[in-house]
Amino acid sequence: MRKVFATEMKRAINIGWIISILGICFSICFDSWNDLLRAFATHNGSVHYFFWNSAFGGACRTYFLPIFAALPFAAAFCKDYNEHALYFIVSREGKKRYCIAKYIVNALCGGLVVAAATGILILFLSSAFPMADSVYQEPFVSDRFHVWIAVYHPVEYAFVEIVSGFLRGMLCASIALCVSIYISDPLVVLVSPYFVSFLAVQAYRIFHVPDRYRLDKLLTGNMIIRSSVFTVWICIVVVSVIVIFLGIFFQKTVLRRLEDGRLY
């Protein structure tokens, strides 16, 4: 099994990692591009402001992050199928081991590129700005968008943002890989996490789901339950359950289609 994981991981190391990390960093910055340029010119800004602005109403982070998370490896299953290499790979690696390794490596790739981009951007911005703006230095500040923890515990705030990014990237990449079972067009697979997230938001609105129960708002810090750290633990549990369910779905569906001969 280790050999199979190592093989899949070697396939996952590609230029897509660099493109994704740079793209995510640029997307978060571009949501506040004018403010960022002004902040560097006046030396007046904060790391939290740019992440807050991107999470509150940023279009680039909302639209592009799911796609960048899927870019490194989510289309690998399509590639194996389109190049007629799937039969040879599964015969060498084993059907179950192939499914498990492919899914786990893809989920890790999606999570790691978003986490890495978040961490790199925080380090870059913190070299020029404080973690939180001075206007938040008051006895009581709102928990929303992790403001309180950014003011009083900047290291924990960075950890919260990185972990939240990892969870979101892992979820988006897993969704894309499941879509690739039915759609063999890599471009469609890469944009599928965005469409799924769009449909999820519409479902939340149609069924009037309260904000405190919306995973998208919890992952961006738009809604906080008790505390930032507690919210992250809730997201870890919920996203883990979803990712495990998607993994079981991916494995069973691929195995069934392989046995039926529909993927050869």
What keywords describe this structure?
264 residues, 13 helices, mainly alpha
What's the quick description here?
The chain is mainly α and 264 residues long. The protein is built from 13 helices and no strands.
Structure commentary:
With 264 residues, the chain is mainly alpha-helical. The chain has one domain. α5 packs antiparallel against α8 and α10 crosses α11. The longest helix is centred in the C-terminal third of the chain and has 33 residues.
SSE ordering: HHHHHHHHHHHHH
How many domains?
1
Radius of gyration: 20 Å
Mean of residue pLDDT values: 90
Q: What shape does the CA trace take? A: elongated
Helix/strand class: mainly alpha
Q: Which segments are poorly predicted (pLDDT under 50) over 5 or more consecutive residues? A: none
Note the gap between the termini.
23 Å
Provide a count of the helices. Answer: 13
Strand content: under 5%
Number of strands: 0
The helical percent reads: over 70%
Keywords: Membrane, Transmembrane, Transmembrane helix
Protein name: ABC-2 family transporter protein
Transmembrane segments: 12-33, 103-125, 145-167, 179-204, 224-250
How do the strands and helices of this protein lay out in sequence?
Elements: H1 2-12, H2 15-30, H3 33-42, H4 47-57, H5 59-70, H6 76-82, H7 86-93, H8 95-126, H9 147-152, H10 154-179, H11 186-206, H12 215-220, H13 228-260
Helix pairs in contact: 1-8, 2-5, 2-8, 5-8, 5-10, 5-11, 7-8, 8-10, 8-13, 10-11, 10-13
